[in-house]
Amino acid sequence: MADKQNMALVHPSQEILDNALVKNYDELYQYSIENREAFWAEQAETLRWIKPWDKVLDNSNKPFYKWFTGGEINIVDNAIDRHLTGETRNKLAIIWESEAGQVRSFSYYALNREVSQFANVLKSMGVQKGDIVTIYMPQIPELVFAMLACAKIGAAHSVVYGGFSYEALAARIEDAESRVLITADGGFRRGKPIDLKAIANEAMKRSPTIEVCITVRNNGIDAEMESERDFWYHDLQSLPIASPKCPTEPMDAEDPLFILYTSGTTGKPKGMLHTHGGYAVYTATTHRMMFDIKPGDRYWCAADPGWITGHSYIVYAPLINGATVMMYEGAPNYPYPNRWWQMVEKYGINILYTSPTALRGLMRFGDRWPQRHDLSSLRLLGSVGEPINPEAWRWYHEVIGGGRCPIIDTWWQTETGGAMICPLPITPLKPGSATKPFFGNEIGIVDDEGNEVPAGEEGKLVIKNPWPGMARTIYKDDARYAELYWGDYGDKDYYKAGDSAKVDEDGYLWIIGRMDEVIKVSGYRLGTAEIESALVSHHSVSEAAAIGLPHEIKGNVIHTYVILKEGVTADKPLAQELKEHVASEIGRIAMPEEVSFVEALPKTRSGKIMRRVLRARALGQDEGDLSTLEE
Ligand code: ATP
Ligand code: MG
C-alpha cells in the first residue's frame, strides 16, 4: 500500500509546461480558497451575461446554495451565439462519425442554424420555458441539437441514455411529466440496428403525459408512427415554421437547465437538477484549465451525451470554449479493436477523454492494435468514472500517449456538475491518484464526526464548500437531497460524496471505493479499488471486482471476480496464484478467500461495476434496482 504512494512522480514535458494555461497551481489554488467568490466571479466574467449578477453566492438557505443570483444568462448564448460574430463562426463545432463510417460535420454557424430551426419547431409544438422535454436518442448530432434547442428557448431537458429499457424511460418521463419526447428510429451497435422507436412506443403507452413525439431518421428501420402524436424530425425541420432565426431566451442564472439521473451504481438513480448560470461557469472553467484547450484543438470525449460526462464535457463546456468536438456513435472495438486509434489518427485528435472501463476493455486485445496507428497528435489524455488502476494508467500513458501525454484523472459526480479533483497538465502525477482539488474546492477525508483523519488513513470524502456547478437539488425531492448529501456532519456544512478515499503525505488524493463497499477484514478497512488494482496488475487479468461477504470469525472475507485476458486459461493454480499476488501486492490481510473466473461483470450502462449486484447474488438476496444494468 505504502509504496504506491511513494512512487516516483511522473512529470510533464517542458513543452506541456511552456504551453500551459495555468502555470502555478499552488498560487492560484491558494487565491481561489481565500477569495472563493472573487475567483468564481472572475471566471464568470469570461462568459456573456445578459444582465450582471447581484450576488456571487447566496448561502442564506443552506444546503440550497444559489450562484450569481439576479444575473441573467443563457448557456446557449455562450455555447453558440457569441461565437457567431468572430473567427469561431466558421470553425467546426462537431465532427461526427457513425459506426458504419459515415461522417457529418457542423461549423458553429451551421450548428446555430440547426439548433435555431429545431428551437422554432419545439416552440410551435407548444414547448415553453419551464417545461421538461425528454430526449431518448443514440449518439447522433441531433441529440446535441435537441439539448441545445431546449436550453435556447428556456425548456429543461431530461436526457435518457439510448440504451435504457422502456421501463426506465417511462419512469423518467413520469418523473419529468414531459409533454414532448424526442427520439430516433434507431441506432447501430456492432453493425446491428437497434429499434429505439419501438422502445419509445412501449414507454409512451405507460406515459399519459406525452402528447408529441418527434423522431429523427437515423438507421432507416421501419418505425411505427401514430398520426396525432408522431412527427418526423426532418419533416418538421423543412416547414416554414422552422426558420433558422430564433432568439435565445434570457434565463435567470438559477433557472433549470436539465435534470439527469445518476448511474445507479449504488442504488436507485437520483434525478439531479442543474441550472444555467453556475453550471456554465463551472464546466467551462474546469474544461479550459484541465484540458488546456487551444483554438486549434480537436477534442474527443468518448462518453455518451446521456451521462453527466457527456452533458458537461461533450456538449456544454467544449462548445462554450469554442472547441471542435469529436463524436462517435458505435462500439470502440467495431469492426476491430483499433477503431478508436484509427479515428484518433484520421482526425488528428489532440485530447482524448474516456473511462477506465473502456481502457481495460481495449487493453485486453493487446498493444498491437494501437501500435498500428500514428497517435502522435495526442497531447492530453483524460479519465473519468471509476478509479483508474495503475496498470491501466500506465498502458494509457505509455502505449496510447507515447509517454508524452499527462493523464488527467478527473474525480466527480452527476451531482457535482464538473470535475472536483483533477490534475492540471502541469501537475506531477501519481498513477491511480486523481491528485489535487480543482480551484475553489476544499476536500476533506473525515471520520463519522467530520473530523479529518490522518494522512494515509481511509475516510469519507467530503467537499467543504459550495461550488457553482453543484446540483441544486434532487428533482422534486429537496428533503432527500438535504438528507442524503448534507445531513451527516451537523453545522459543518460538508457535502458528503459517498466515496471513501485517503490523502497521502504529499496531499494527493486516492479514491478507494464507495463508502458502503469498504471491506472490513479482521478490523482492517480495505478499498475495493485497491484489491481490484492488485488483480489487474497481474499479467493474465483484464478486469476484476472485489466484494466483502460476512464471515463468522473474520467479520468479512473478500470474494473476487476476474475476467482474464484473451487466450488465458482459467484453472485452479491460476486462482491460487492470483490470491498470492494480491497478498504480495497489498498484504496477507487482503488475500481473497475466493477468485471466480467470469466472462463479464455486472455493470451500469455507463460502464461501472455494480458490486452491490455481485454481493446480492452471492448472498442470494434481492438484487435491488436494476434499471441501469447493462445487458
Ligand atoms: P449512483 O449515485 O446512482 O450510485 P454513480 O455514483 O455511479 O451512481 P455517477 O454520478 O455517474 O453515478 O458517478 C459518480 C461516481 O463515480 C463517484 O462518486 C465515484 O465513485 C466514481 N468516479 C467518477 N470519477 C472517478 C475517478 N476519476 N476516480 C474514482 N472514482 C470516480
Ligand atoms: Mg453516486
From TrEMBL:
Residues annotated as domain Acetyl-coenzyme A synthetase N-terminal: 25-79
GO cellular component, one term: cytosol
Alphabetic keyword roster: Acetylation, ATP-binding, Ligase, Nucleotide-binding
Any one biological process term the GO annotation gives: acetyl-CoA biosynthetic process from acetate
Gene3D superfamilies from the UniProt entry: 3.30.300.30, N-terminal domain of ligase-like
Domain AMP-dependent synthetase/ligase: 87-472
InterPro entries named among the record's database cross-references: Ac_CoA_lig, ACAS_N, AMP-bd_C, AMP-bd_C_sf, AMP-binding_CS, AMP-dep_synth/lig_dom, ANL_N_sf
Similarity-based family: Belongs to the ATP-dependent AMP-binding enzyme family.
Entry protein name: Acetate--CoA ligase
Organism for this UniProt entry: Corallincola holothuriorum
Organism phylogeny: Bacteria, Pseudomonadati, Pseudomonadota, Gammaproteobacteria, Alteromonadales
